[in-house]
Specification:
The structure holds two protein chains of two kinds. Chain A is mainly α. Helix content of chain A is 73%, strand content 0%. Chain A contains 17 helices and no strands. Chain B is 78% helix and 4% strand. Chain B is mainly alpha-helical. In chain B, helix 14 crosses helix 17 and helix 16 (250-262) packs antiparallel against helix 17. The longest helix of chain B is centred in the N-terminal third of the chain and has 41 residues, at 2-42. Chain B has a two-stranded antiparallel sheet. Chain B has a domain at 83-248: MetI-like fold, CATH 1.10.3720. The chains are: A mainly alpha, B mainly alpha. At the A-B interface, helix 1, helix 4, helix 5, helix 6 and helix 7 of A face helix 1, helix 4, helix 5, helix 6 and helix 7 of B.
Chain lengths: 315, 299
């Protein structure tokens, strides 16, 4: 006869087993491409032909990585990613916090209109506005004033900032860079949960709003700043659309990796038959792209997951 | 006294405006004006002159020629828009299940969370598109990660399906569905994360009360967890839809390609507007379903 207690413990073990089966099978699907990249990136050309090799290659070579670095012009494109994307990510982390503070702490007219525009800027995909932005960058102008000036006098004062880092910095400075609306939203959720008393005390002690923000609010928002920074850095690192549209010559790493087969062709010429240039270099290039954020993530993982638990993004 | 208070209030108002003024400028310059510009382009013929593009308004002829004269456009548009009705439920339910499990206490939780947040880190479509057969050079064919060759090669589900002796159509459908599912698991990262953050905010007392009142786990899931997650769910729905419509859309990639490499501005803008009008309608339908299915439970 099965007692109630026994039944309960069997049930518990069954759920335990089910949970692990479910998790491990899903984890396999997620880890699989990473292993696939690794095992393919270290093979020699001969190993691709050998049918006895499925996962473990017979000999390990780093040649594919060397070729990938050459084809990607790794040093140059890494530098471009830092100059264009990482700097604008850092700018965005700061500016969005300022705007979010203004939106969540102060009452003023038309605030509901601004909230509407915030939601709009989250919902409207970047592609919808990319083209006019690019055209505007070629002839930088505000409300067509300089264009009118050009038409009347024939003097063109409109600067061309297309293909310069300014195309990334300017929107980021104004809080409408890559996923800027999302970051403002996350900050707002956090700030509205922050106790107001501390700031009021600072006010009474004679600190202005800017000083209050810089020395009282920002230091106590470490958790949310960490969350936003990680998202901003990762999303900028992986950004493809903005880099493709805004940059002509000095492409970033993610665009180069995306065009890896073209780059291999440009660097090594036509590749015929089975070659590690076709089978080993693309996964090696992918690994080069994901390894910097992955390394950072491995170090920050604990803090990141904790901050997700605490920041209450969704309030 | 009263006067002084009003002074502080107006001062605060001014400070608030000071804080958000640059952002308002950004919204006007980089969001509102561009949206109107694309609309103007979509109803004009755009010629690129020395002073930048010149738009000559011709009315809605671009829209007309795509919607009425072009045979494949409408089909493609509808197919691309309705695909969300299969992928959205999969993503939402998968990430909710994952979040529920990862939120429990068990051995190796940290490791599992680390693995399941991997897609957040590698969230670029770039890696998946290169792995899924990056030999093609144009954007539209590589970014459309429709059939995943990486998984189908190794997991051999094509062979298993072939042995089941299904009718050819069913076999094909299953293949596509499975391939999609594997890709969709990859796009569950941020959603899982948001759901976990939402689950953290539900107070334990609610579940305790449920237990005392004799609710089963199933009941407490439907009457405590889901209603408490309704706001997160809304955020997840919006995020997923934007992601699916933009990041994985062959449609959008084709438009971008025409803009970037062929400098076509007018018809591409018209296509963008039609696409996003469709997107708006789909979002409306999803919101309606959300209201009917979820908000009813919240009461």
């Amino acid at each position: 006869m099965i007692t109630n207690k026994k039944l309960a413990s069997t049930k518990k073990i069954a759920t335990e087993i089910l949970r692990y089966v479910f998790l491990i099978s899903f984890a396999y699907i997620l880890v699989y491409p990473v292993i696939y990249m690794l095992t393919n990136a270290v093979r020699t050309t001969m190993d691709y032909i050998d049918p006895s090799i499925v996962w473990l290659p017979k000999s390990i070579t780093l040649q594919n990585f060397k070729d990938a670095i050459k084809a990607l012009q790794f040093g140059k494109s890494f530098k471009n990613t830092v100059i264009y994307e990482m700097v604008s990510a850092a700018v965005e982390v700061f500016t969005c916090s300022v705007f979010a503070y203004g939106l969540s702490r102060f009452k003023f007219r038309f605030k509901s209109v601004l909230m509407f525009f915030l939601i709009l800027s989250i919902l409207i995909p970047d592609v919808m506005v990319l083209l006019p932005r690019v055209l505007n960058f070629r002839h930088l102008d505000f409300l067509g004033i300089l264009k009118l000036f050009y038409k009347i006098t024939g003097i063109d004062l409109r600067a061309n900032i297309y293909d310069t880092p300014l195309t990334f910095y300017l929107p980021s400075l104004l809080g409408v860079g890559l996923k800027g609306g999302m970051f403002i939203f996350i900050y707002m959720q956090f700030f509205s949960g922050l106790p107001v008393e501390l700031e009021e005390a600072a006010w009474i002690d004679g600190a202005g709003p800017i000083r209050t923000f810089l020395f009282i609010v920002l230091p106590s928002s470490g958790v949310v700043i960490l969350t936003v920074s990680i998202f901003a850095l990762i999303w900028h690192w992986n950004d493809y659309y903005l880099a493709l549209m805004y940059i002509m010559e000095n492409q970033t790493l993610s665009v180069m990796v995306h065009n890896i087969s073209q780059q291999v062709f440009l660097t090594f010429g036509e590749v015929n038959g089975i070659s590690s240039l076709l089978f080993g270099v693309p996964p090696a290039a992918c690994l080069l792209l994901i390894s910097p954020p992955l390394i950072v993530y491995l170090f920050l993982q604990k803090y990141f997951i904790k901050s997700i638990d605490r920041v209450g993004i969704v309030g | 006294m009263k006067r002084r208070k009003r002074g502080i209030e107006s001062l605060k108002r001014r400070y608030g405006i000071m804080f958000v003024a640059p952002w308002v400028l950004g919204i006007v310059l980089f969001v509102i004006i561009p949206i109107f510009t694309t609309f103007i382009y979509s109803i004009s013929n755009v010629v690129i002159g020395p002073a930048g593009p010149e738009a000559h308004i011709v009315g809605f002829s671009h829209y007309y020629s795509y919607l009425v004269k072009n045979a494949t456009f409408v089909d493609q548009l509808v197919a691309s828009l309705t695909s969300i009705f299969t992928s959205l439920p999969i993503i939402i339910s998968l990430s909710l299940i994952l979040a529920l499990i990862l939120n429990q206490e068990f051995k190796g939780r940290m490791l599992m969370r680390g693995i399941f947040f991997l897609p957040v880190i590698i969230s670029s479509g770039v890696v998946m598109s290169v792995l899924n057969g990056g030999t093609a050079t144009d954007i539209s064919s590589t970014l459309s990660a429709g059939t995943s060759s990486v998984y189908s090669q190794s997991l051999n589900f094509t062979e298993i399906l072939a042995r089941l002796n299904l009718p050819t159509e069913a076999n094909e459908l299953m293949q596509n569905y499975l391939a999609d599912t594997f890709n969709l698991i990859w796009s569950c990262g941020v959603q899982t994360l948001l759901f976990i953050a939402g689950l953290q905010t539900i107070p334990d007392q609610l579940y305790e009360v449920g237990k005392v009142e004799g609710a089963t786990a199933w009941e407490s899931f439907w009457f405590i967890t889901i209603p408490m997650l309704s706001r997160v769910l809304l955020l997840v729905l919006f995020y997923t839809m934007v992601e699916l419509f933009v990041e994985n859309s062959v449609f959008v990639n084709k438009i971008l390609e025409d803009m970037r490499w062929h400098n076509i501005y007018d018809t591409t803008s018209a296509r963008l507007w039609m696409y996003f009008a469709g997107v708006g309608i789909v979002i409306g339908i999803v919101m309606l379903l959300y209201k009917k299915l979820v908000l009813k439970r919240v009461g």
